[in-house]
Design a protein that fits this description.
This protein is 46% helix and 5% strand. It is mainly alpha-helical.
Length: 328
């Protein structure tokens, strides 16, 4: 979502194909001593230099990370368009790019063990406490290659998990009808974990008739709240039995909550946070909605509740822009 590129489930311009794996993309291999080079095994998946034994077979860090993400996130890749010959000898010369489906199947074929990837978590016991061979730690080479690629792989995994949590938040039953000012949202604690507290919204997809009825209810609630000056009482996650959202408002909130998870954003002065948020949030919520609709193979914007948006945002969407961002 905000400030980042999608890290999983995305299709590149070449339909989900991977660049050739490389365990030395950031460093000059000449920096490694001859004796160390002599001990480098070959990655059983892609044929590049391995960086140790990963998930029971010699593998480079690229293939190791690819296999771990595929297993942990249960990713389903599209079928191969090239008769499942991506890793054939003939294909190596004419098609250096490999589809992800074939790459995952090759990981299984060479003996990578899925259970090792599933059991290897941050809260796993110390190495000395491991009792079975399936739980042995990866054998890493003491070289700068492993350090650099482990660092990059860790960032990718964190961004992927953040995207999953943000998508859960967008589809959750947390549904405030009033959003505080921008300063209030930025100063408040993070809300993405509310997705786990409230759970998924029920009753989706909704019908157009139900959507119209709920919009009337939302307008009435807001009118009553403005007249009774009880805005403070309606900023909670209570949804009043409503299972649709005002998506312009909620997606802006989601984009801001996403940004708040980044350490560099929290280190900015308050005024810089406000300026950066105003300059980027609307663009990023538009990209989020477009991306989600693209994954659903829709030619128009489709919200998680099943309603397609094709017209103006509406009265209260415009008022939200004014109240939160100070623009109309």
């Amino acid at each position: 979502m905000l400030f980042s590129t999608k890290t999983s489930g995305t299709m590149s311009a070449s339909e989900g194909e991977d660049e050739p794996c490389s365990s030395h993309s950031f460093y000059d291999m000449s920096l490694i001593g001859r004796s160390e080079m002599a001990t480098v095994e070959i990655c059983r998946v892609c044929g590049k230099n391995a960086a140790g034994k990963h998930y029971s077979v010699p593998a480079c860090h690229g293939c190791k990370s690819f296999f771990r993400r595929a297993i942990l996130h249960k990713t389903v890749y599209p079928e191969c368009k090239y008769d499942k010959l991506c890793f054939s000898r003939a294909s190596r010369a004419v098609r250096p790019r490999k589809c992800r489906n074939c790459r995952l199947q090759k990981c299984y074929a060479v003996g990578m063990v899925a259970m090792v990837a599933i059991h290897r978590k941050q809260d796993s016991p110390p190495h000395s406490a491991r009792s079975s061979d399936s739980e042995l730690p990866d054998l890493r080479m003491p070289s700068p290659i492993a350090t650099r690629e482990n660092y990059v792989s860790g960032i990718i995994d964190k961004l992927h998990n953040l995207d999953i949590q943000t998508d859960k938040f967008r589809k959750s039953a947390y549904n405030p009808l009033f959003i505080p000012s921008l300063e209030g949202v930025l100063a408040s604690s993070g809300k993405l974990d509310l997705a786990d507290k409230y759970g998924a919204m029920s009753g989706w997809p909704i019908t157009q008739e139900s959507f119209n009825e709920q919009q009337v209810m939302i307008n009435q609630i807001k009118t009553d709240s403005f007249q009774s000056h009880s805005l403070a009482l309606t900023t909670s996650g209570a949804n009043f039995g409503i299972n649709t959202k005002e998506w312009l408002s909620f997606d802006m909130l989601t984009a801001i909550e996403y940004a708040k998870t980044f350490p560099f954003f929290q280190q900015l002065p308050s005024n810089d946070k406000i300026l950066l948020t105003k300059a980027t949030t609307f663009m990023n919520l538009a990209l989020t909605s477009s991306y989600a609709s693209f994954l659903s193979k829709m030619a128009v914007l489709q919200m998680p509740d099943g309603i397609c948006i094709s017209g103006p945002a509406g009265q209260y969407g415009s008022s939200f822009l004014y109240v939160v961002f100070g623009v109309s």
